[in-house]
Amino acid sequence: MSHFTSRRKGKLMIYIVAIICSIFLILISTKNVSQRIIKLNGIENVAYVTNSEFISFIENDMSGRRISFYRINMKYEHNDVEYNKIFEFSKLDFDKIFGKELVEGDEISIRHLKRYPRRVILD
Predict the structure, then answer these.
(1) Which of 4, 76, 110, 112 is least buried, going by the fewest C-beta atoms within 10 A?
(2) Is the pLDDT confidence value at 5 over 80?
(3) What burial class does residue 104 get, using C-beta atoms within 10 Å of its C-beta: 0-12 exposed, 13-18 middle, 19+ buried?
């Protein structure tokens, strides 16, 4: 009887892992599709940096692993409505995309959907 129960638990665990993996893959592909749609159908716009900061901290004392990233706050307008967006980048991605420190007022080229202007990608 216990052998049958452990096999049943094993199958259940496999199903749970498969469902979790499927959900994860769907979320990733949805994000990629959304970015491609914005790239193809989005409109060009300019965003202005309102704040740029480098954040670095140690995850916890046990691991000692340092987490570092840039957080960029920007604002842009569409149809006379002002929107705010926050992007976070690893140091490597930030250096590759911008190549310099950003200061308040710097312009960044963006693309967003006309009907959904909160969906933004860097251009």
Answers:
(1) 4
(2) no
(3) exposed
What is this structure's pTM?
0.69
Q: Is 112 exposed, middle or buried (0-12, 13-18, 19+ CB in 10 A)?
A: buried
Nearest 5°: CA angle at 121, between 82 and 115? 55
Taking the C-alpha atoms of residue 46 and residue 76, their distance in angstroms, rounded to an integer, is 6
Distance of CA 113 to the CA centre of its chain: 17
| C-alpha torsion angle, residues 19, 22, 27, 30 (rounded to 10) | -140
The predicted model gives 67-92 an average pLDDT of 94
Q: Sign of torsion, CA 88 115 44 104? A: negative
